[in-house]
């Protein structure tokens, strides 16, 4: 039987505290995310930035267990998806800034004797900084390999009914943890992006707003908000920031808040540290007495079903 490879594309993260600086270096070298000076100088500047930031970032990873869980969680998703797809499909993982990287993933696919690849980024909302960067890296490595791969892409799934269902299930479970719903506010927290990306046509904001709108059709009467986290650098980023929105809501007297990490499909430092520790502590200081976060989708049945439907889409 002819097999097809499904390649799950994800950002990755450090597997140990000693890997943090190298992970940051790879990230800051990526001109699809950020252009720092002329291209020939970016590796040098990236080295300086990553060295300066490594200690602080490593301290955050140490608090959440000394590593990123993203590799393990993505592998679990790949294994669950392979079981769901059944005969004729093999699932592989390629991390953009850690291992297994794109070179290793394509080498494994080649060893398996597979030539057709469905590239499936684990970013629901498309951005050139996430899916775009992963696609560019995939194309570069495939061209260098001269292996004759046929590669088809799933660009996004921000409005897929099963993705919306998976998010709604997590929200429903999160709401059930409160004493009542009448005073609960839902705060969708998406990963931030420089405003210049949007100004230059990146669809990320439009996709994110569409996801929120579709999810909230299932929760009529519940007040919701959208904000953006993980800002880095001096450039203007999408607003409002999540920490600014927390302060605003606290000032309005909100006491019950459910945070939904809308652009993240797996737990990693942005959920386990930034939301669960930094934002939770700030919420308490601001007077928000019940601060909860929905669970990440990880390998939930509805999310894996969504990925399977994307693979089986007629246009692929």
Q: Number of DSSP strands?
A: 8
Class from helix and strand fractions: alpha/beta
Q: Supply the CATH class of the domain at 161-293.
A: Alpha Beta
Mean pLDDT equals 95
Main-sheet strand order equals 2-1-3-4
- Rg calc: 20 Å
Alpha carbon gap, first and last residue:
18 Å
Basic shape? globular
Task: Estimate what percentage of residues fall within beta strands.
Answer: 15-25%
Largest sheet: 4 strands, parallel
| Second CATH tier, the architecture of the domain at 161-293 | 3-Layer(aba) Sandwich
* Helix coverage percent: 40-55%
Q: In sequence order, what are the helices and strands, one letter per element? A: EHHHEHEHEHEHHEHEHEH
Number of helices: 11
What does this structure look like?
With 316 residues, the chain is of the alpha/beta class. Among the domains are: 17-63, no CATH class; 161-293, Rossmann fold. Helix content is 47%, strand content 15%. It has a 4-stranded parallel beta sheet with strand order 2-1-3-4, with helices on both faces. Helix 3 (70-85) crosses helix 11 (301-311) and helix 6 (161-175) packs antiparallel against helix 11 (301-311). The longest helix is centred in the first third of the chain and has 22 residues, at 42-63. It is globular and about 60 Å long. The mean pLDDT is 95.
């Amino acid at each position: 039987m002819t097999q097809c490879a499904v390649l799950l594309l994800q950002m990755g993260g450090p597997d140990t505290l000693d890997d943090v600086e190298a992970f940051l270096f790879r990230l800051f070298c990526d001109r699809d995310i950020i252009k720092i000076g002329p291209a020939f100088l970016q590796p040098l500047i990236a080295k300086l930035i990553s060295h300066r930031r490594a200690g602080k970032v490593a301290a955050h990873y140490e608090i959440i267990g000394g590593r990123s869980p993203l590799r393990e969680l993505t592998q679990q998703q790949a294994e669950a998806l392979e079981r769901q797809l059944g005969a004729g499909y093999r699932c592989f993982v390629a991390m953009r800034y850690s291992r297994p990287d794109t070179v290793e993933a394509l080498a494994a696919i080649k060893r398996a004797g597979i030539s057709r690849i469905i590239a499936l980024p684990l970013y629901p909302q498309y951005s050139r900084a996430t899916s775009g960067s992963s696609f560019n890296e995939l194309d570069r490595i495939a061209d260098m390999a001269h292996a004759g791969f046929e590669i088809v892409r799933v660009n996004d799934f921000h409005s897929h009914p099963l993705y919306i269902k998976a998010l709604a299930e997590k929200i429903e479970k999160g709401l059930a943890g409160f004493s009542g719903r009448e005073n609960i506010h839902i705060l969708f927290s998406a990963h931030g992006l420089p405003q210049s990306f949007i100004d230059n046509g990146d669809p990320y904001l439009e996709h994110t707003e569409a996801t929120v709108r579709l999810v909230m059709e299932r929760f009529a009467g519940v007040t919701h908000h959208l904000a953006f986290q993980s800002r880095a650098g001096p450039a203007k980023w999408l607003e409002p920031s999540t920490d600014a929105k927390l302060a605003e809501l606290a000032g309005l007297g909100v006491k019950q808040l459910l945070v939904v990490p809308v652009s993240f499909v797996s737990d990693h430092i942005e959920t386990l540290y930034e939301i669960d520790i930094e934002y939770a502590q700030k919420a308490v200081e601001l007077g928000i007495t019940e601060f909860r976060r929905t669970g990440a989708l990880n390998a939930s049945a509805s999310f894996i079903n969504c990925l399977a439907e994307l693979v089986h889409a007629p246009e692929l």
